[in-house]
User: Fold this.
Amino acid sequence: MTLKPLTPILLFLALVLCTSATYAQDDFELIKLADYFGKYYQYFDEPRMVEALADDFRYFTNVPCPYKDCATGAAKSDYIAGIVEERKKLGFRVESISMKYIAPLTALPVDPVERRVSFYCVLSTEALGRDYKTYSVIDYYFRKFGGAWKITKIENRIINRGSMG
Assistant:
């Protein structure tokens, strides 16, 4: 028995495995970038936040926010300016941010250019002398620019915002 009839099948399987490995590596990079972005936000590392976001970045959330037009998607400059304003005006301080990866990307995406990673997030903050804990599901969307992944969109679906006292 020769391997000739099996060759196309073996080539196809090798292609699938290589593609899956590439996507798995990308998934790891995207999870890491989103996690780093959470840390940049926590410690308000503005240059790194700006660097991680694509120029056509948009921020969406389901609650009113200071980032200007969040319902229709705040632009990168409005989002950063809103964070600056929020921290100055309300004395807003991020005490901790915990993000748990919840959406595996094993299936090939519909748009091969844009990728999404989802997290369950718990955010503990202090503002106006009170502590708050916010629970949300956050979707980060990524595209490659010049060989590097950048965040193009964040959709923050807040589930519960509560004061701790």
